[in-house]
Design goal:
Four copies of one chain form a homotetramer.
Chain A: E1 5-6, E2 11-15, E3 22-28, H1 38-48, E4 65-67, E5 71-72, E6 75-76, E7 81-86, E8 101-102, H2 108-115, H3 131-147, E9 151-159, E10 162-163, H4 173-177, H5 186-201, E11 208-215, H6 229-238, E12 243-248, H7 251-254, H8 259-262, E13 266-269, E14 272-275, E15 283-284, E16 287-288, E17 293-299, E18 309-313, E19 318-321, H9 336-353
Helix pairs in contact in A: 1-3, 3-9, 6-9
């Protein structure tokens, strides 16, 4: 009810503040007998880390995950899987000057007003550091989906006004991973890096768009009318820090198309039903149709700038604020594993929910 | 779990198929002592009806709502409010030819695959007729929000490639209502009607964009980290038939802005904290900040065309399909009360949830 | 949240007041493709009816159930199944004198205090008439469980101070049904009838105990640690009007036994694991163990008496109250189908929940 | 869904196995601004510990609780409160001989069957060690209820066949605490100790009954029809290890009373509405009526005996089993803080839920 859980049958509840002692969560509903792929989970954690790239130079953490329960002899037991990551590299003094200040476009003001109390250190609960719990649980979910052949792959399709020219091309995972900004188009990736360097020098920040593909999703996932698969994906994605928009299939562009352009005709291919096109983005009536699921997510630029901004404080005084310490220029490349995690959590939950539709 | 409920404290569960005996729902959690505004509810139902406009000429229903429980002497009693609308004008024979057919971009195929059985008459549960239950419950929710000064107003900002030039202008409710297509810009409204007439003659269909404003929302609504106010709004809107995208505040445009352009500076106005701009769309960190909440929703064109399309049937044969009976050219104007209903349901639920944050 | 739903995957939400227009509910999560056994459902409704017996002479209703959705060609479609029963035989005038009065041991006073408004006619939502929705949904659940060989059978083991001597005997369904008070022991049944006749003449009322057996429950149902099978059964039973106690297996008697007397030893029977005794009542650690599930439920006597009782009214005046109209002497025999319904709802829900434990 | 959460608005999710690295939980929905009473929490933990009494000589743990989040400068912030207790004194070798064995009346067999895998060390998740998370969260809940004047007090009313003669007497907290077995009647307490000593010498075990009183509960808590206050209390209590029965008010005895004996007459006392008697146990129609809430809970004897019992193993062989290591004779006195915790969790949850009934 208080909003820190997601999922119905594969349910994640997270906890933790940026500068508290730990971030973590409990997964309730992980099927029993699943071998835990620690390497896969650690790779996802590494993908989320600051990495001294043009986009990211912020706080570095060892980010070692400790699993506390629900695993016996490396297999899930069906009981809750609790895990935590200690916060070690916390420089609370970097935030002392923000104790009474409300940073523009941060959650400082709304948390203060809602709760009447606020852990101001590093954004507290509203910090993107919270997402490490999502990445860990999502990696576990994704490793389970992989056993059923389902794969999830996100990439950066825009940073600022630089975009991939052909978003629908089938990029390989290798092309994505080899880009410092996780943009699989080599030419675009270079331009993004140039833009990032320029904007960093200005003390300014950038946003962008992440595109995500889900392959081999079985037909039938999604629970109409409210828990449509794309509705739950939208909620999961919109719950990520800094996300301002979600679209799937031909998305906002659909609103400009005629029915005869938009509709995907059904065809017979190799004696099986298929589709001529995939403007639907793999979901019809809220239920997966077996085609590739495809969606885009818009991220706003990072709110903390390395240059002065006007704001106010608790005492209703106008002040000037400027970022101190370690901050990224653009969070979008680091958000790739978060998007993949939220997709995996949503999908596995619906995979399990679909098991009771027929008996 | 099976997806037919929305909301936590103000919870709506709906039922009904297009050509079944009735559509309806149960509202559980309506606060006690609320005077029911039947006129307001009936107006919303009327707004959703087909109205012989350029956009809509489809099936007409009396749509009389019967309340079955939870109301005593015209006031809510705190017990569940059940309601239903009988389906009377059902021409099942219009759908007999679709018994075995899968219509392109409809839910026919996925329902068949998921459930192994399908009420094919008029789209069954996947029909937009289901939304009448949302409109009724949403109207009740909106009438409660109005008592607290909160108002919701949606309008059509695009149909096909015709868009309002100034989307952020403060249109009056009268300007919206006086347009046949619910587009408050007179010039744009005319162009939309021309386009609709033209496309109707082609037997084709159109989509569009609805924009929605929420005024006077109190500060503090929204439950991070997963049930952020905009995440729940996104889910609610994406659950409406034919919706392909959602964005709030500066939305997808944010991804192209620099932090210094995007950030809303806090200011002191009349001794109170306010904001210089509202790119955030009234929500920060998932919690309403007291500014206007603003979002856009993209609708794809209606899937049923009055001209032949290729498809397949249950017997894996390729067939040609063409709409029979009564169908709209564009559903977007009729979706206005549905959008307002989903916004009201989401907002009232969070309004109630926020009551237990401080004691 | 407002308490009118039960179940997670097979979820029932009910509505309706004693003298409102209808009682009914929505079942969300009924698996698709189930043939509806209307005869079975109607038999259960009949079992719940007042029947001019020694125990029951109260209001008679035709109690015809109308299914509104979720069924197509007599099979469940996987979409919500809504149903209602009209209240026809409502003599609201019998309750006019109670408008301002709080009847002893009824919910009048607490509903007034909680909600600030109350439908006083016939007890409103607090009336046992509400249970007809449980019986209908429970009958559907039970008919599904029967397909898997699971059977549920409740009987009256006590009325007032008259009890069956051998509660653990395996009574046949026929023995139960042939008793006017649903007590399968012929001698005891006769004594109960005598007691009922005597107490009715006094204008007084009686309670009793219902015992319930579940046979062929598969091993593995129940979700520790909070949703133990017996914990969910307890909640389901305690939610029935007038229930004051629940025990399973050897129940309260267990508290007086030594471990060596209580423990059920595991044995090998026909090469399969079994148990020597069943003090556990078929559930170990909250999970069904394959043995017979057995529990008892205590009902208090009916609160409405046909003789004067002291009470108070809304105006804080002391008054005298006496039942008018039609009231039972003892509700226990009529509660048999309600107990069976709540058992079926609980069991089917856990049956579905157990499907996602292993994948 | 997987059963490890309880509560709707004040929601506890627990994790941990007896011999895993830690036991703990997340509280989601704790109101903001609550000062944490660490002393009160630690006292409750101490009450749950083995204490070298006649009843208990089992495994001793330091049981230090670490709070990981949701608290800032000693106050709750409205974000999730995570906590854990490390398992330090784990002698897994005591359980090595049980790897393949199913102990009588333990959950070994059902966990194996349900999950296909089992952490056999110390009972794994089914161990009563899990309840330490309940005690911590419940202590926090109880400390919040105390701010509103609500108090909870449980005591031992029976061990084996030794019972308090006058269960309805108003015992002081001091009388309870001064008894080694938490039985406030001095004479009965002595007899219980004698019985425990005798049964311990036999290598056998005992159960008993805990009675619990809630004072100053406000009128209006409880959400009919399914989430009646006593139904949720029943579920909470039945979810505690070894509990076999629950009754409230006059409980099972009600089934033997006439309506005229059972009914509590309403009266005017000091110009306020009150009740002549309290057979209802403080709850009418599922809603608290302002009177003392009173209930009894039956515990079966501990399943592990210090003498041989027959059983079977994974290989379907008949074996003999005897407890090794450290085990209590009777868990009932140590269960007092667990009962109080479950009562506090249930009550605070309903206290918060009741806040949205009227607006």
């Amino acid at each position: 009810m208080a909003g820190n859980s997601i999922g119905q049958l594969f349910k994640l509840t997270t906890f933790g503040e940026s500068h508290g002692s730990a971030i973590g969560g409990i997964i309730d509903g992980c099927p029993a007998g699943i071998e835990i792929d620690y390497q896969f989970i650690n790779n996802k954690i590494a993908n989320r880390k600051a990495n001294d790239s043009a986009a990211s130079t912020s706080r570095k953490e060892p980010d070692e995950v400790e699993f506390l329960s629900g695993i016996f002899e490396n297999k899930s037991t069906g009981t809750p899987i609790a895990f935590l990551v200690r916060n070690t590299n916390t420089k609370s003094e970097d935030y002392e000057h923000l104790k009474d200040a409300f940073r523009p476009s941060h959650a400082d003001y709304t948390y203060s007003q809602k709760y009447g109390i606020r852990d101001y250190r590093g954004g507290g609960r509203a910090s993107a550091r919270e997402t490490i719990a999502r990445v860990i649980a999502g990696a576990l979910a994704e490793s389970i989906l992989k056993k059923f052949g389902i794969s999830i792959s996100a990439f950066v399709s825009s940073i600022g006004n630089i975009s991939i020219p052909e978003i629908n091309k089938n990029f390989s995972q290798n092309e994505i991973d080899s880009s410092e900004v996780k943009c699989p188009d080599l030419e675009t990736s270079k331009k993004m890096l140039e833009l990032l360097t320029k904007v960093k020098a200005e003390g300014d920040t950038l946003g962008g768009i992440i595109s995500c593909r889900i392959l081999n999703c079985p037909i039938g996932l999604g629970e109409p009318v409210f828990d449509k698969l794309h509705a739950d994906l939208a909620k999961a994605m919109m719950s990520i820090n800094a996300v301002k928009g979600f679209e799937y299939g031909s998305g906002f562009m659909s609103s400009k198309m005629k029915g005869s352009e938009m509709n995907d005709e059904l065809i017979i291919e190799n004696n099986k039903i298929g589709f001529n096109t995939n403007n639907s983005g793999g979901i019809l009536g809220g239920i997966s149709n077996g085609e590739e699921i495809f969606f885009n997510i818009a991220f706003k630029p990072i709110s903390t700038l390395m240059k002065p901004q006007k704001s106010v404080n608790l005492q209703n005084e106008e002040i000037s604020i400027e970022g101190k310490g370690r901050h990224d220029v653009c969070a979008v490349p680091r958000a790739i594993p978060i998007v993949e995690a939220m997709a995996a959590l949503t999908l596995l939950d619906h995979f399990l929910r679909n098991k009771s539709v027929k008996i």
